[in-house]
Design a protein that fits this description.
Blueprint lengths: L2 E7 L18 H5 L9 E6 L4 H14 L4 E6 L8 H14 L6 E6 L5 H12 L6 E6 L10 E5 L4 H21 L8 H16 L4 E4 L6 H14 L7 E5 L5 H9 L16 H4 L4 E5 L6 H13 L1 E2 L8 E2 L3 E6 L3 H6 L5 H7 L2 E4 L10 H16 L4 E2 L1 H11 L10 H14 L4 E2 L1 H17 L4 H7 L4 H5 L6 H13 L3 H8 L12 H11 L4 H4 L2
Parallel strand pairs: 1-2, 1-4, 2-3, 4-5, 7-12, 7-13, 8-9, 9-12, 14-15
Antiparallel strand pairs: 5-6, 10-11
Helix pairs in contact: 3-4, 5-6, 13-15, 14-16, 15-16, 17-19, 19-20, 20-21
The structure holds adenosine-5'-diphosphate and magnesium ion (MG).
Amino acid sequence: MKKKVVLGLLGVSLDMGTRENRWEKWRPTVSLCQHEDLIIDRYELLYQQRFNNLAKTVTKDIESISPETEVVHSLIEMRDPWDFEEVYGCLHDFARNYDFKDDEEYYVHITTGTHVAQICLFLLTESYHFPAKLIQSSPDKKKKNYAGTYTIIDLDLSRYDKLANRFLVEAVESQDLLKAGISTKDRKFNELIEQIEKVSMRSQAPILLTGPTGAGKSQLAQKIYELRKQKNKLQGNFVEVNCATLRGDAAMSTLFGHKKGSFTGASNDRAGLLKEAENGLLFLDEIGELGLDEQAMLLRALEDKTFLPLGSDTPVKSEFQLICGTNRKLHESVRNKTFRDDLLARINIWDFELPGLKDRAADIAPNIDHELQKFAALSGNLLRFTVESKKEYLNFATSAEAVWAGNFRDLNASIHRMSTLADTARISVDDVHAEISLLKKKWLHTGKEEQVFQLEEFLSEEQIAAIDPFDRPQLANVIRVCKESKSLSQAGRTLFSVSRLTKKVSNDSDRLRKYLAKFGLSWDGLNT
Ligand SMILES: Nc1ncnc2c1ncn2[C@@H]1O[C@H](COP(=O)(O)OP(=O)(O)O)[C@@H](O)[C@H]1O
Ligand SMILES: [Mg+2]
């Protein structure tokens, strides 16, 4: 059997009493030693020097009712037992210096001491600074028994784990909000959201969201705002502006406000977005597009919390939280001197890169369902895929052929088109096929290689879309040579300059004619 050791503070009012009638009163420290089913081998009594006399009485009383309990005194010096920092510091020191032994079992008595001390004892036990169970005692309600009752709370038991789990559940709910309720499966993306949730709840420092267009930067900024608002981390508004739309005088005035008459057209005072975002959140989308003058002013606003409206010499104050979005590599912009390095240092304290849809293949399926729901909410029609059509669409959507240049914006539009065009409540295989060719055609133009421009001069979009990407550069090169040559045979000689040397009869013109014909092209067609 391990020795039972109780650690407890002397209860300076509850444990009080020197006269004989003190025995008719519940005194937590003495009473705890009176239970027959709880034999305490040692009681570590913690108290401040000035309660020495009370400690002596309590010790004497314990010895008389429970001779097997050894009472050990420990002095703790705190000036103000209601000062959290001080009390925590004292108890923390005590715990660190205490020689906890394997053959002893520890209980922390949390019934005595100020509420502050009780909270500190709980925290230090929860964090294993006291490797102990908690013990709580209370008087007998019917006053029949002065020993009262006691309860042991073992924080290691799973039912107390549930308390801790509540915090986890809350975090999961917050992550769900950030993900707009879509149960994403991609491990890396989920980890990213976990981090963003933590940072959103624990920090007010600026956040930079990077990633390609349509990756969800704007939506995430809005969700971070909603989460913070829900958890009372801010009171003000969500104010959003796309910096690419800000130019000239209007840029300064939109952001920082202006005085009436400060420029032509300034017929009234204007507060500006930084002021509108006061105590709220400002989302500067496409921050890489902000002009250098505006960058300088923004930096000052972030550092001093003040700025000058256009045409005014009285600084205006505004404190706000900041999120910036960009699809540019801002480090490169710094190198090109189009972005201030000091501003970048200020806004990218937290830098999160949102992946494009292509890098989240596992999330395409849940997002399709989400888009169908969104369409249903808009139109009142919930459409579904058939088993086959879903398979075909998913196959394409997750294949290398699917560029997803506009990321979620493309997926959203694609589902919207199929839902609109479907003739029944099911999106058919035909609907999917039509949509796939449309997407392919669309993406031909995005990030399109030079060859596609060359091909477009002679071929229709449908024709180009039907040519393997493997063949496109070769065909583009053949066309270029044909256009630079005076005759079909000259072009043939250039194009087959190596293999023609090993041939007895040269058939370059014929080979070239046949090659062009494969794509529906002819020498005459190219050179008219
Ligand atoms: N994680 C996401 N899952 C599904 N759809 C999303 C997600 N994030 C954004 N969207 C949708 O994609 C579109 C583009 O998102 P947006 O936040 O404007 O992208 P960005 O600001 O990065 O260009 C919006 O219609 C938005 O509702
Ligand atoms: Mg955006």
